From TrEMBL:
A Pfam family hit: Calsequestrin
Primary localization: other
Similarity comment text for this entry: Belongs to the calsequestrin family.
Name of the molecule in the record: Calsequestrin
Transmembrane segments: none
Signal peptide: 1-17
Calcium recorded as keyword: yes
General function of this protein: Calsequestrin is a high-capacity, moderate affinity, calcium-binding protein and thus acts as an internal calcium store in muscle.
Cell location: Sarcoplasmic reticulum lumen
One Gene Ontology biological process: regulation of skeletal muscle contraction by regulation of release of sequestered calcium ion
One Gene Ontology term, aspect cellular component: Z disc
């Protein structure tokens, strides 16, 4: 693991020490590349962004775009260590697969791990590991429950009821990679600590539609279900991208968000945010009344291109 940085090396080494303390059984090392003194080294290694952390795993370079916290980085590293494709062999594992709804995921059906088609799939998985979840089954009964044909791969967008089959089977690695790259901005995404900067920087015309909602709170859960309904109705719209933030995942950020946006995160909030200057407009919601319906939220979003004054 290398950081290409101008930041205080002590802070990075402190973070590294905390992570390594929990990874004493793993063969992992940390290094620091000074962006002022070692630009040639950074260029040779393919380090492009200053103040970033890069993970070298086998032949892949993975940029860590998440929270600089030991527990978050540690969890991310454990994901990196795992195999890029998780095999589903029984109903219990299939149930676990279905419970994953917050992430992009793919499922493929292949004859065996020795299949050349599975090899192409596995190679594609390495390109996106661990940020996109790849699954596969070699069991006909599992494939039947998923309506998968041999050598077919389904793409699941977060929070959508049905997957999309990648066209053109059997595939080579580039077919799968290209499809994912064309569909890697879901209509509804959850801001996760391990990828928060990557998601926040992936804006549309400088804007994000942002929804703060605690999933564990009844009102927050209701808002989340409404967001899912709106996303499902607009999944074909490339200009709609909603970011769901659960304040429980970012307790230290709550005071900053409340001050910056002028909102109270003790109840759900939905707004449009300019990512450059943090200007924002928020939907009026009375936490003592019912939450907005999906139709009301859809209508509000369509009217909220507040800077360009153009509906999407």
């Amino acid at each position: 693991i290398l950081t290409y940085s101008t930041i205080n090396s002590f802070l990075f080494l402190q973070l590294a020490a905390q992570v390594l303390d929990d990874l004493d059984d793993e063969d992992i090392g940390f290094g620091l590349v000074d962006s002022k003194k070692e630009r040639a080294v950074a260029k040779k290694l393919g380090l492009l962004e200053v103040d970033s952390i890069y993970i070298f795993a086998d032949d892949e370079i993975i940029e860590y775009d998440g929270e600089l916290a030991a527990d978050t980085l540690l969890e991310f590293l454990y994901d990196v260590i795992e195999e890029p494709v998780e095999i589903i062999s029984n109903d219990r594992e299939l149930k676990g697969f279905h419970h994953i709804e917050e992430d992009i995921k793919l499922m493929g059906y292949f004859k065996s791990a020795k299949s050349s088609h599975f090899t192409e799939y596995d190679d594609a998985a390495e390109e996106f590991h661990p940020l996109i979840k790849f699954f596969a089954t070699f069991e006909a009964k599992i494939a039947k429950k998923l309506n998968l044909k041999m050598n077919e791969v389904d793409f699941y967008e977060p929070f959508m009821n049905k997957p999309v089959s990648i066209p053109g089977k059997p595939y080579i690695e580039d077919d799968i990679v290209s499809f994912i790259e064309e569909h890697d901005r879901p209509t509804l995404r959850k801001l996760e600590p391990h990828s928060m900067y990557e998601i926040w920087e992936d804006d549309i015309n400088r804007q994000h539609i942002v929804a703060f909602a605690e999933e564990s709170d009844p009102d927050g859960y209701e808002v989340l279900e409404i967001l899912k309904e709106v996303a499902q109705e607009n999944t074909e719209n490339p200009d709609l991208s909603i970011i769901w933030i659960d304040p429980d995942d970012f307790p230290l950020m709550v005071p900053y968000w409340e001050k910056t946006f002028g909102i109270d995160l003790s109840s759900p909030q939905i707004g449009v945010v300019d990512v450059e200057d943090a200007d924002s407009v928020w939907m009026e919601m009375d936490d003592e009344e019912n939450m907005p319906t999906a139709d009301e939220l859809d209508t509000w979003i369509r009217r909220r291109d507040v800077w360009n004054n153009q509906p999407w």
